[in-house]
Amino acid sequence: MVKIAPSILSADFSNLIADIKKVEVAGCELLHIDVMDGHFVPNITLGPPIIKSLKGKTNMIFDVHLMIENPDKYIKDFVEAGADIITVHSEASVHLHRTIQYIKSFNVKAAVALNPATPLKDIEYILDDLDMVLIMTVNPGFGGQDFIMSMVKKIADLKRMIDSKNLKIDIQVDGGIKPSNVHLVADAGANVIVAGSAIFNSDNIEETVKAIRTNASK
What we know:
Low-confidence stretches: none
EC number: 5.1.3.1
Strand order of the largest sheet: 1-8-7-6-5-4-3-2
Protein name: Ribulose-phosphate 3-epimerase
CATH architecture: Alpha-Beta Barrel
Order of helices and strands: EHEHEHEHEEHEHEHH
Pathway: Carbohydrate degradation
Radius of gyration: 16 Å
GO molecular function, one term: D-ribulose-phosphate 3-epimerase activity
Enzyme class: isomerase
Distance between the termini: 11 Å
Shape: globular
């Protein structure tokens, strides 16, 4: 069964708590929190104080996606703010194994994200240490982009890699996912679905979440 992680990048920040409550009531398991620094990606979003202000307002898992340079400098801050899962980018981490071990030293789950052009071999030798791999299905930085179809094969290749090692690792996908294409990534092996604009910009959040879950299971 898939888990759904709405991205608050597409939420109404003037009514953030209300929007979060809507996706929680709709049954979403994770809250995907995109952190951007304006350097690693061409956008700036939010930091630990915002995350800390949300902690306790929802029972959802805080899935913090760090799209930032030098992530090691800020990991402790995000853990203390309330992160349950921390995802770092392979492309932004000089010593990726060390970064993963540092995240896990705080007893939170560790994940690695790969941009569309980044090959799976970049995580081959740390796969055993991961709780989740995030395959970016758009180039990171902005919400509302179109899904990159070639990422379906990448997801399937990752699934085979994980299965060949008999590992239990979540495969998360992020970018351009909506009810009409979620079956493609789910069939390829993804089980954690990030959706931002498709959920928060819909007329009926509960129905959209239900459609994503249903279509992913077909």
